[in-house]
Amino acid sequence: MSNTCFKCHGPDEHTRFADLRLDTPEGATADLGGYRAIVAGDPDSSEAMQRILSNDPELMMPPPDSGRELSRQQKEQFAKWISSGANYEQHWSFKPIKSPPVPTSEEADGNPTHPIDAFIRRRLESLQLTPSQEADSSTLIRRVSLDLIGLPPTAEEAKNYLSSESPDKYMELVDRLLASPHYGEKWGRHWLDQARYADSNGYTVDSPRSIWLYRDWVINAFNDNMPFDEFTLQQLAGDLLPNPTQQQLIATGFHRNTLVNQEGGADKEQFRNESVVDRTNTTGAVWLGLTVGCAQCHTHKYDPLTHTEYYRLFAFFNQTQDINSISPQLQVTSELQREQLAELDEKIRSATAAVEARKQQLDSTISEPSSTDSMWTAITPKNITSAGGAVLTVLPDGSVLASGTNPNSEEYTVMFTSPLAQISAIKLETLVDSSLPKQGPGRANNGNFVLHEVGLKSTEQTAQWIDATADHSQNKFPIKHAIDCNFKTGWAINVTKGNMNVNREATLYCQPLESTDDKLEFQLTLTMANPQYSIGRFRLLISEADHQLIGLPDPELSRLTQIQTSLEADWKRINQSIPTTMIMSELKVPRETHRLIRGDFLRKGEPVTPGTPDFLPGIWSHEDNESRLLTRLDLAHWLIQEDNPLTARVTVNRIWMQLFGRGLVETENDFGLQGTPPSHPELLDWLASEFMTNGWSV
Q1: What is the pLDDT of residue 621?
Q2: What is the rounded distance in angstroms from the CA atom of residue 112 to the CA atom of residue 90?
Q3: Which distant-in-sequence residues (6+ apart) come within 8 Å of 42 by Cβ?
Q4: CA 635 to CA 586: how far, in whole Å?
Q5: Residue 144 and which of 35, 194, 440, 528 are 20 to 30 A apart at CA?
């Protein structure tokens, strides 16, 4: 009936024909205006039976154009069912799990048969079949190694196993394999398939993402034999557990494996909605073994899941924080990294305190002048020379303009007298001029220059440079290169964007130089390292003020600041090396959920609250859940309730499938009416019952 009738006469009221519903006894036996589709005990009076047996294309069921038909045997079976009372039983997978009695059976040596073998032998005997012979030892070790760790035994392992005379050697082998770290890798891989694990986001951009920590969590969970009920709680709602640990948060990566659309024109709400749909459908398939996604646009055509119930499940996952479908992120810090960051935090606090203390000390000892301009004195050159043959002219403002020859290398010498008792700094202003290329201030074709070295001397002394600053330096041509005694490096002023050709200034700080005599010389050297890159126009100013008052940072403050900066760089480097992983996180204010008409996120129907399907047992009372909005944690608890008939069945069937290639139920993700019935239903229920009774131990 599910295969041939329910599509048109099943749960979905929107596609139901003739107002006839055959998936429930009430609908099948209802009075439809003078006839009933099924009259219990009377096939001849049952309209459905008459239609099934009819040859009239206008009346026969299923209709000829449906592509479906009933065999003669199925028609006879249908008639017998009606004759026997048309009894509707609950679908096998929706019935409670009850542990069946184990068939009595003994091995040839008189030992009791393992319950699994006992169930299978009873089935084989009913078919007059006998079990296969036990595999030889070399085959057995290879099989169990591949099944448990995904790797064949080494030659040494096989040799030891084959030569062992221990009666328990097989069990010892299994124990060893279960203890192997490869066990978690092998069985974690199967689970990661269920978790749709990937290392990229999908869609057209398909950029990489960091969620490998969730992969490692899965592997470790299998290696630690984490009980499946706890495995479920942590993955579906680890963030909602009381005081969740870092590992419990990582576990929620299960539902962060949805596709992420990073296209520029993508509608964020549309793809957030699609992520929630994916989480709903995946939960239904993985834990319930049901095709709940069929109810996204309409009531399920085969299973008793309504369109509204689908969005009640959807509502559990509609309360998470999703920004562009990839937030939030969790930094996962190792113990070593935590110790390193804590140590650096303490050092940074100390360094910051030392910097502030030094600033306060300087503020108390050095008073700020009203203007630093008053601390500079412009000089008027007495004599200027060009070693390269350029013409140097002193302009009315005291600046020097170069013209004429532009040699490959150059050295300007400016002789001047000083009204100051000493010189502690020289300010070099490089100035634009209409006579220069691109208006200067340099003589290169683009208006740039390279100043390789500067010098200052009196009759008795040569200045010792301490530091240099500039309002701008070209990348890789800092002002400090002009005082480094290296004629291959220098100061230049090109820019990465904007206009290079503007006035610039540099301040050169020296140990105080006595300037009482009138023979002071300032030299600007430009070498063959950058041919024809001499300065076009410049002006000099001198000062005798304290270095800090005219802009040079205090050396001690600079040292302390550098220490602080270095510590902060170390902290940043370690912090950036900490891996991140995507996790689930609940909204502080719940988002209202609506039934979406035809599954369209733009067409909202009536509001719905989180809840489970009516055809399955309800959620047990957890705390005060009757007076609050249910959460993913409630859903996770519901999935592992003892009276939930699906989770244990679906899980043990999936394990069986991985070991034997085919599940006891072949349709691993469909335990509904369209799924394949179990080949060994009592064995399946015995396994499911044992699974729960023994602490959900995989």
Answers
A1: 63
A2: 35
A3: 82, 83
A4: 14
A5: 194
DSSP tag of 672: S
Cβ atoms 683, 120 nearer than 8 A? yes
For the packed helices 647-660 and 181-194, what is the interaxial angle rounded to 10 degrees?
120
pLDDT digits (tens, 9 = 90+) for 527-567: 999 999 999 999 999 999 988 888 887 888 889 999 999 99
240 pLDDT exceeds 60? yes
Please state the length of the chain.
698
Query: What type of residue is 304?
Result: P
**Please, which residues bridge with residue 269 across strands?**
none
> What's the rounded Cα separation, in Å, for the pair 687 and 638?
20
pLDDT in tens, 626-638: 668 999 999 999 9
Q: What are phi and psi of 683, to 5 degrees?
A: -65, -45
As given in the structure block, the two tokens for residue 41 are: 């005990």
The residue among 424 and 106 whose pLDDT is bigger is 424
CA distance 257 to 250: 12
Residue 153's pLDDT is 97
- CA distances, 506 to each of 144, 409, 469 (Å): 78, 21, 6
Distance of CA 79 to the CA centre of its chain: 57
Quick one: tokens of 345?
């935090």
CA dist 556 and 550 (Å) reads 16
> Does 307 have pLDDT greater than 60?
yes
pLDDT value for 456: 96
Structure tokens at 229: 């009920």
For the chain, what is the radius of gyration of the CA atoms? Answer: 43
pLDDT at 584: 94
Is 696 in contact with 655 (CB distance < 8 Å)?
no
Q: Which residues pair with 428 in a beta bridge?
A: 506, 540
- The CB-side HSE value for 508 (13 A sphere, CA atoms) comes to 28
Q: Can you tell me the mean pLDDT for 655-680?
A: 96
Tokens, residue 447: 């208006």
Rounded CA separation 260/266 (Å): 10
Q: How confident is the model at residue 426 (pLDDT cuts 50, 70, 90)?
A: very high
Structure tokens belonging to residue 650: 């679906």
CA diameter of the chain: 134
The dihedral of CA 300, 305, 307, 312: what is its sign? negative
Cα distances (Å, whole numbers) of residue 415 to 139, 455, 522, 544: 99, 12, 7, 18
Task: Determine if the peptide bond prior to 617 is cis (ω within 30°).
Answer: no
Secondary structure letter of residue 529 according to DSSP: T
Peptide bond into 62 cis (omega under 30): yes
Burial environment of residue 653 by CB neighbours within 10 A (0 to 12, 13 to 18, 19 or more): buried
Would you list the DSSP string of 259-290?
-----TT--HHHHHHHHHHHHHHHHIIIII--
615: its two tokens: 């055809």
Rounded distance, CA 235 to CA 310, Å?
21
Tokens in use for 453? 């070295």
